[in-house]
Design goal:
It is built from 17 helices and three strands. It is mainly alpha-helical and about 375 residues long. It has one domain. It has a three-stranded mixed sheet, with helices on one face. Helix 5 packs antiparallel against helix 6. The protein is globular, with a radius of gyration of 21 Å.
Length: about 375
């Protein structure tokens, strides 16, 4: 591994990297996209016999978007001599500019949806076909591990116990305003768990491998890098990061057909935004046509309709597809764990490492060490995706 270079030779890169680091501190989209009144609106939606458009409220924005845009685009990128690195920072600036527009237009209907499209895209026909292919498989095997019997406090203990295998320290917070069972806030190194959620043993295994084994691992690997871009995130890193996280579920043997189908339902749900469905329409498709129970149908509809149409969720399935193929063909997973990176920039990461401006991953996802998956159906499906 090359030695870390002194900053003198690459001072322009470090200066721009530090400037961007200061600017991005408030742009954590997940801080703003989770509604504050989920439980009340869910109650009203159910009591109105699913014929009501939930009116979600969102956290207030604590930055001046216009000013931030101006500061981002005032960076003197022409001072970076290395072409690949200059291109990376240019892509990063456009990415953050897009995220600012996303945050500023939360709860502005289609305006937010179009900004979300710019940042996260929407499923292709091929990805929709993959989702429908997965939904043809049976997931009805009963397993005691699937029973939701653990409280949020018990989940906290489970996470703490699991985390002993890594020596990094992070905060755990319980919240009632969460549209997922758990999430990691990268900029504050915080794991947030849903306070009212009942967890099954399988879900706890899934979440620990997903949230700690990958999202926290890449958070702390990013923080150990000389350049902050690894911690703040490469452009369009969601697909790679979520792909790595679901691959960790697969390798640790806790990915189930039920979970894979949930990722497929998310693709179908994101596609309904493209078709102009209302919240109630998306819910009805999942509940009436796909026969999901009403809590699950509501949760998925909420995830994709929050903000005005949030398209990020289709990237979990395309992510596991890409990471699975990459790993099976002998790809180096270490390079993808160096921070919040995107596999499209593997060559750039190698170049940054060769210049001595980045190190190998300090932490490695232990689920990747051995393949504990014993579900032949999962292998068949993941190999068959187009």
């Amino acid at each position: 591994m090359p030695q870390i270079t002194s900053t003198d030779e690459f001072q322009n890169i470090f200066d721009i990297d530090a400037n961007l680091n200061r600017l991005v501190q408030n742009i954590e989209l997940l801080n703003y996209i989770n509604p504050l009144n989920i439980q009340g609106e869910k109650k009203q939606f159910f009591s109105a016999k699913y014929n009501y458009d939930p009116q979600f409220k969102y956290p207030k924005i604590n930055f001046n978007g216009y000013k931030l845009h101006r500061l981002f685009f005032s960076q003197r990128l022409e001072r970076i001599e290395n072409e690949a690195i200059r291109q990376l920072y240019e892509d990063v600036i456009y990415e953050y500019s897009g995220l600012i527009e996303c945050i500023e237009t939360i709860n502005h209907g289609r305006k937010f949806y179009f900004n979300s499209l710019k940042s996260f895209g929407t499923p292709t026909e091929k990805q929709i076909d993959n989702a429908k292919f997965i939904l043809r498989f049976d997931d009805s095997d009963f397993d005691e591990e699937m029973l939701p019997i653990y409280s949020a406090d018990e989940a906290v203990d489970f996470f703490k116990d699991y985390s002993k295998r890594y020596d990094f320290k992070y905060k755990i917070k319980l919240s009632t305003n969460l549209s997922a069972a758990a999430m990691v806030l990268n900029n504050t190194q915080t794991l947030v768990l849903s306070k009212n959620h009942k967890f099954s043993l399988n879900q706890l295994k899934v979440l620990t491998n997903h949230e700690i084994g990958v999202h926290m691992v890449t958070t702390f690997n990013g923080l150990s890098q000389p350049l902050k871009v690894f911690s703040n995130g490469f452009p369009n890193n969601v697909e790679t990061q979520e792909g790595l996280a679901v691959y960790s579920e697969y390798m640790s043997g806790c990915l189930t057909m039920k979970r894979l189908k949930e990722l497929a339902y998310r693709v179908i749900a994101v596609d309904t935004l493209n078709k102009g469905y209302s919240f109630a329409d998306t819910f009805d498709l999942l509940f009436s046509q796909y026969k999901l129970n009403r809590d699950k149908a509501f949760a998925i509809a909420l995830r994709v309709h929050r903000g005005g149409g949030f398209t990020k969720d289709h990237q979990y399935l395309s992510g596991i597809h890409r990471v699975y193929n990459y790993a099976k063909s002998g790809g180096d997973l270490d390079v993808l764990l160096t921070g919040k990176v995107n596999m499209d920039y593997i060559d750039t990461i190698s170049e940054i490492q060769n210049l001595g401006l980045a190190i190998s991953s300090k932490y490695y996802t232990d689920a990747y060490m051995t393949n504990d998956n014993s579900n032949k159906n999962l292998d068949f499906i993941l190999k068959s995706l187009k």
